[in-house]
Amino acid sequence: MVAALSRSDVEHVAHLARLGMTPAELDRLEGQLNQILDRYAKLAELDTDAIPPTAQTIELENILRDDVATPSLPQDRVLANAPAHEGDYIVVPPILGGDAS
C-alpha cells in the first residue's frame, strides 16, 4: 500500500502550485489525492511483464499534408484586407494595457 499524504504534504503541494486554498478545500484535496494514490497502488499490483511498453494506446496517423512553400500574397492585397494599417504595417490593438492609438 502506498503511504497516504498528510495534511502538511497537501498544504506544501498547494503552496508550490501557488494555490490559495481554504481549510475545507485542503481537506477535500487531501481526500482526493489519497484516493488517486490508492487507485495507483491497485494498478501497481498488476503483472505487466508480458505487456510491451507503449506511449500510445492507439496507433497515431499523421493526417496533415506535407508543408510545401508557396508564393505569399502580395503585400498590397494583405494590407487591403487589414482593418487598419500604417505604411507597410498592420495596426493591431494593444494586448497589455494602454489604449489603441
Structure characterization notes:
This protein is mostly helical and 101 residues long. The protein has a domain at 7-44: Glu-tRNAGln amidotransferase C subunit, N-terminal domain (Histone, subunit A). The chain is built from 3 helices and 2 strands. α1 (7-16) packs across α2 (23-44). The longest helix is centred in the N-terminal third of the chain and has 22 residues, at 23-44. The chain is flat and about 65 Å long. The N and C termini lie far apart (63 Å). The model has no long low-confidence stretch (mean pLDDT 88).
Question: Which SSEs are present, and which pair or pack?
Answer:
Elements: H1 7-16, H2 23-44, H3 75-81, E1 85-86, E2 89-90
Antiparallel strand pairs: 1-2
Helix pairs in contact: 1-2
Uncertain residue ranges: none
The H-and-E topology, N to C, reads as HHHEE
Q: Radius of gyration from the CA trace? A: 27 Å
Write the CATH homologous superfamily of the domain at 7-44: Glu-tRNAGln amidotransferase C subunit, N-terminal domain
Distance between the termini: 63 Å
Task: Give the assembly state of these chains.
Answer: single chain
CATH class of the domain at 7-44: Mainly Alpha
| Mean pLDDT value | 88
Quick one: how many beta strands? Answer: 2
* Named CATH topology of the domain at 7-44: Histone, subunit A
Choose one word for the global shape. Answer: flat
Strand ordering within the main sheet: 1-2
Which percent band covers the strand fraction? under 5%
Largest sheet: 2 strands, antiparallel
Helical amount among residues, as a percent range? 25-40%
Architecture of the domain at 7-44 in CATH?
Answer: Orthogonal Bundle
Number of helices: 3
Structural class: mainly alpha
